[in-house]
Specification:
Layout: E1 2-10, E2 13-19, E3 24-28, H1 35-45, E4 61-68, H2 73-82, E5 91-98, E6 103-107, E7 110-112, H3 114-124, E8 125-128, H4 139-150, H5 153-176, H6 180-200, H7 206-218, H8 220-234, H9 242-257, H10 264-290, H11 295-315, H12 322-337, H13 339-385, E9 392-403, E10 406-415, E11 423-424, H14 425-428, H15 431-446, E12 453-457, H16 465-478, E13 483-487, H17 491-494, E14 499-508, E15 511-518, H18 521-533, H19 539-550
Parallel strand pairs: 3-13, 3-14, 8-12, 12-13
Antiparallel strand pairs: 1-2, 1-4, 4-5, 5-6, 6-7, 9-10, 10-11, 14-15
Helix pairs in contact: 2-3, 4-13, 5-13, 6-12, 7-11, 8-10, 9-10, 13-15, 15-16, 18-19
């Protein structure tokens, strides 16, 4: 679960550290105080796309850090897959944002990427914002809920593997069935190009070798002059020669060693140096003997390099890649020349792949239809608890052509009032009904979800009174199984919190600051009274708030 959230320079928050706990954590405050900023900061640490506009005015960077404890096995497995590990079940994520638009990330103090944070997010936190309720208007999301509830991940993965294999074969078959004139044109082109490359017979490393040889031939005079100078220096005819001078020095030091053994090692070193210099002189002499100016060879090299340069420009690759390209062209050419045989094989392979994919899609569809009824029944019961006593929820399936999701199109039809025919959610659901339907779905899915922390951002939109109290009770129930963070404007929900935080905006010296404060019981009474009564907190509001806390 999320233990500590540290925020620095995000919007109106200069610096704040929030320690959360298990159970139901509620955040309240005046409109515009900065509750949504907390959610923005959590989204940032979860690797979501952020704008540099959220960086506090006048600051160049912003920083968010989140510490999680008792992380679940799925998080540990994902960490290991990414090359990290949880230390004693604890995980720290950090992200720095800059005005340049770039960001840097760390996982347990080690450098990471935004995509790594995003990969971990699915197993750490599930955020339900106000906009998510409107996803219910899209039937495509309904199938995802059913799959999550039914634990269909393995079946979907197996199906998609077969489906993608089928699509690849289908694409090849479509290409094989292309216009005959196009096939003949491609054959003609490939025959010429592959023959051109095979005739060139380019060898690995040939271009580098030719460049080196070309350089040697072009600089023959310079090389000859420099080697000759080196040879003369090493084996001069008089004592000025390098090797001869060292020999004289070696003899002198060795003679001195006869009187003092301290010079013996130095004399031996000079002797070794003399023989090394003689060897170098001989090797330079051999190099001079081998050195020759060959204008004809230089012309051959220039022509060969010109050919390689022309081919690399023509085929947009390096010289070393030309042989492999020739092989690819030859393979494609053989495919086109053996058109009829390959086409028959492709048809058979494509039909088989489609049959295998369809078989898995039908099995997946059967499972979906079975679990959809159970899922809809459970969501319906949750919605009835949330002050929608007459709601009906019916899963409707239609069979489609093979697609990435199988052969199913699913939609949850809803009837909120007696006598109404179940219809698509977008046709009849109000804002309050959407919020409660989404909460009901999240509640049902929580039992099958590995995520330890659920965040609800103003799930009370469009509801009040007893419905708000029922939503609070449902959040409290969900919090028995996982950590819940809830941003709310409803006193009925806030009163049920295990831990209550006040988000307060202040203006000091012309700058705006947001402060997050954990509330004790007395402070909770005052905050609940503010939510109930507004700016002017009355004795009656305080009494009502006290009574709400006493009956939790």
């Amino acid at each position: 679960m999320l233990k500590t959230l540290y925020i620095e320079n995000i919007a109106v928050i200069e610096k704040t550290s929030i320690d959360f706990d298990g159970g139901l954590n509620v955040l309240t405050g005046e409109t515009g105080a900065g509750k949504s900023i907390i959610i923005d900061a959590i989204n940032a640490i979860m690797g979501q796309r952020t704008s540099k506009e959220i960086i506090r005015t006048g600051e160049s960077t912003a920083f968010v850090s989140a510490v999680f404890e008792d992380v679940n096995p799925s998080v540990c497995a994902k960490l290991e897959e990414l090359g990290f590990e949880a230390e004693d079940g604890e995980l720290m994520l950090q992200r720095t944002l800059s005005q340049s638009g770039k960001s840097s990330c760390k996982i347990n103090g080690r450098p990471a990427t935004v995509s790594m944070l995003r990969a971990l997010a699915a197993n750490l936190i599930n955020i339900h914002g106000q906009h998510e309720s409107y996803e219910l208007f899209s039937p495509e999301t309904h199938l995802g809920y059913i799959d999550s509830y039914g634990g269909c991940e393995q079946e979907i993965e197996a199906y998609r593997e077969k489906y993608h294999a089928y699509k690849i074969l289908q694409k090849k078959l479509n290409e094989a069935n292309s216009d005959e004139s196009e096939r003949l044109r491609e054959i003609d082109l490939l025959q010429f190009q592959s023959q051109e490359l095979f005739d060139a017979d380019v060898q690995p490393g040939e271009e580098e070798q030719l460049d080196a040889e070309r350089g040697a031939l072009l600089n023959f005079e310079k090389i000859f002059s420099l080697l000759s100078k080196a040879k003369r220096a090493l084996e001069g005819e008089d004592a000025d020669g390098g090797a001869e001078s060292v020999d004289i020095a070696a003899t002198a030091v060795q003679n001195a060693a006869a009187y003092n053994s301290d010079y013996e090692e130095l004399g031996n070193s000079l002797t070794d140096l003399y023989y090394n210099l003689r060897d170098c002189a001989e090797r330079i002499g051999d190099a001079l003997d081998d050195l020759e100016s060959d204008p004809q060879r230089l012309e051959e090299i220039e022509e060969r390099l010109d050919l390689l340069n022309r081919l690399t420009r023509k085929y947009n690759c390096t010289a070393d890649e030309l042989p492999a390209l020739a092989e690819q062209m030859q393979a494609r050419l053989e495919e086109l020349l053996n058109y009829d045989r390959n086409r028959d094989e492709l048809i058979a392979a494509c039909d088989k792949a489609k049959e295998e994919a369809l078989s898995l899609a039908k099995a997946l569809s059967q499972k979906r239809r079975a679990v959809a009824k159970e899922f809809a029944a459970k969501v319906r019961e949750e919605m009835r608890f949330l002050n929608m006593p007459n709601v009906e929820l019916i899963p409707q399936f239609a069979t489609t052509d093979l697609s990435d999701d199988g052969i199913d199109k699913a939609e949850l039809l809803i009837s909120a009032n007696p006598g109404e025919t179940p219809r698509p959610v977008a046709k009849i659901a109000s804002g309050g009904e959407l919020s409660r339907m989404m909460l009901a779905i999240k509640t049902v899915l929580a039992a099958t979800d590995d995520v330890d922390t659920l965040i609800f951002d103003e799930v009370d939109t469009g509801i009040s009174g007893s419905a708000a109290e029922k939503v609070g009770l449902k959040l409290k129930e969900v919090a028995d199984d996982c950590q819940v963070l809830c941003v709310t404007h409803q006193a009925q929900i806030a009163a049920l919190a295990d831990h209550h935080y006040l988000i307060d905006k202040r203006v000091e010296q012309g700058r705006t600051f947001t402060v997050v404060t954990p509330l004790d019981r007395d402070a909770r009474v005052k905050e609940l009274a503010r939510i109930i009564g507004g700016v002017n907190i009355t004795v009656a509001a305080l009494s009502h708030a006290e009574d709400m806390l006493n009956h939790v």
